[in-house]
Amino acid sequence: MKQKRVFLAFFMLQLVYINTYGQFFTICADSLHKMEVMNEETLYDSLKADKQVFPDTIKDSKGAEKGKELFSEPHGCEVSIEKNVPVFVNVSTYPLFDLIQKRVTVCLPLDYLKQNSGYGYRTDPVYKCQKFHDGIDLSCRYENVYAMLPGVVKEVHRGNRGYGNYVVLQHGNIECLYGHLSLILVNEHDEIQAGDVVAISGNTGKSTGPHLHLRLKKDGKSVDPKPFITYLNGYIDDLQDRIASLKFGKKPDKELNIGNLAKALETYHVKYPKIVIAQSLLETGYFTSRVCLECKNLFGLRRPSDGSYYKFERWEDSVKAYRDYVQYKYKGGNYYQFLNRIGYAEDKEYVLKVSQIAKRL
Known about the structure:
- Residues about 1-90 have low confidence and may be disordered.
- This protein is α+β, with helices and mostly antiparallel strands and about 350 residues long.
- The relative contact order is 0.12.
- The chain is built from eight helices and 18 strands.
- The strands form five sheets. Strands 7, 10, 11, 12, 13, 14, 15, 16, 17 and 18 form a ten-stranded antiparallel β-sheet that branches.
C-alpha cells in the first residue's frame, strides 16, 4: 500500500521531530461550509468509547459547546502515535504533542472539497428520473483519496458498472465507500491510518464525469455524509488553530491563499465569490503587489476623500470592506455589467481580464 509521508516540521521546537504518514493539509470551500453540524444523538452516538481522541469541546453553529463525547475512537481501532514519539518525551508534559496525537488520527478525503451532488432523491444524470442518491459526489479529477480515520480495508472491487472501481473502509461501526476510482492502492484486510492514500479518483462505472462518490453507513444503514465531513473539517481547523496558538503564543493571521480567501468571502456573505477572487488576483498580481503586502488591501480600495489606499490590519478586513463599500451597491443582474457600471477600474479591459481569470479558477 502506497502512503504519503509528511514531516510535521513545525513541531520540532528544537527538541524532537515526529515522522508520520498521510495528508494533513486540508481546504474546504463552497457548499461544504454551509452544512449544518450533525445531530450527535441521532447519528454518531454509538461511536462513544473509553478512549477520547476528539476535542474536549467544540462549538456548534450557534456558538454553544458540543459535548465531550461527540466523537470517540471506534471500537476495534487502536489510535496511537506513541511509537513515533521518542521515549524521553512525556506527552502529558507537552500539550502540543497531545494535539499532534489527535491531529494525525483524522483527515479529509480530498485536498480540496467541493460538493457536486447531495444525499437523497435527485434526478439521476444517466436515467433522467428520480432516484435515491446514497452518498455525496465531490468534485475532483484523478486526485489522491485519503482515509479519514484509522481502520481496515473491508472490500476492494474493480468493475465497469455501478460504483465502478471502489473501496470500502471500515472505521468501527462506520463504513465508508469511495466510488468511481481510477486506481486502488490498498488490498482487502489492510490496516490503514488517517491520511493514507487509498486510491486515485476517476470516472469508472456509472458516471458522467470524473468525481468521487462518498457513501457512509452506520451500523449497516445509509446516512448522509455531509454532517460527518463538516464536523471533521471544523475539528481539523480547531486543532490546527490550537497547535498554532501553542507554537506562536497567539492565533496567527490566516495564510493568504485562494482557499482561505474563499472561506472569508463566504463568512462575509460576498456574492459571486469566483468573480471576486479573480478581482483580487488581478488587483494584487496573485497576492504579490505592494498594496497587498503593505496595506493588506486585496481589491485596490481607495478613500474617496484623497484617493489613498485603505490600510487594513488583516487581509480579511479588506474582504468585509469590499462587501460594505462595493457590493452593497449591487441590486441584481449581470455582475460584470455592474462592475462596468460603477466604474470599478479605469482599465477598459478590466472586466474582460477578470472574466478570463475567473474561467480558469
